[in-house]
Amino acid sequence: FLYFNFNFSSIFVIVIPFFLYNNIIIIKDFNFESYKTKNYLLMLKNLFLLDLKTLFIIPKFEKNIILSSRNIFNAKVAVLNKINTYDIMSSNKLLISENSLNEINKLFFKC
User: Whole-model pTM?
Assistant: First the structure.
C-alpha cells in the first residue's frame, strides 16, 4: 500500500511530463572543491546542456555547487525542501542528484 503525501502533489504532477519526454537526468552525488563558475559550466558542457535552461535539485545546501552556478544565466540550483513549481516549469531539463531522488521517494511514497 502506497501512501501519497499531498503536500507535494502539485510538484509531483508537474514533474510527470519531464519523465515522459526524457527531460530528467540523474546525476551521481558530488561536490565541487571550490566555488568556481567554470566547474559548473564544465559539468553542463559534458552533459550537452549549455544552451538549455536547467534546474539542478540537490538534497541539502551545498555551498560550492550553489555559488558555482549563480553567475550562469540559464542554470538554477534548488535545495529539495525549497523547490517550487515555478522553477520546475521554467526549466527545460531537470538534473537530480541520487540522494535527492532517494529523498523524493521518501517524501512521496511511504510504505
Answer: 0.80
Residue 91 gets the label, from left (phi > 0), alpha (psi -120 to 50) or beta, of beta
Report angle CA 79, 3, 17 to the nearest 5 degrees: 55
Three-state SS at 54: strand
Give per-residue pLDDT as tens, 51-67.
Answer: 999 999 988 888 888 89
User: The C-alpha cell of 42 is what?
Assistant: 564544465
* Cβ neighbours of 97 (radius 10 Å): 22
Residues belonging to the chain: 111
The SS3 call for residue 77 is: strand
Q: Which residues contact 68 (CB under 8 A, 6 or more apart)?
A: 32, 35, 36, 37, 39, 40
DSSP code for 83: -
What's the rounded Cα separation, in Å, for the pair 32 and 11? 28
Nine cell digits for residue 82? 525549497
Is residue 10 predicted with pLDDT exceeding 70?
no
> What cell was used for 103?
529523498
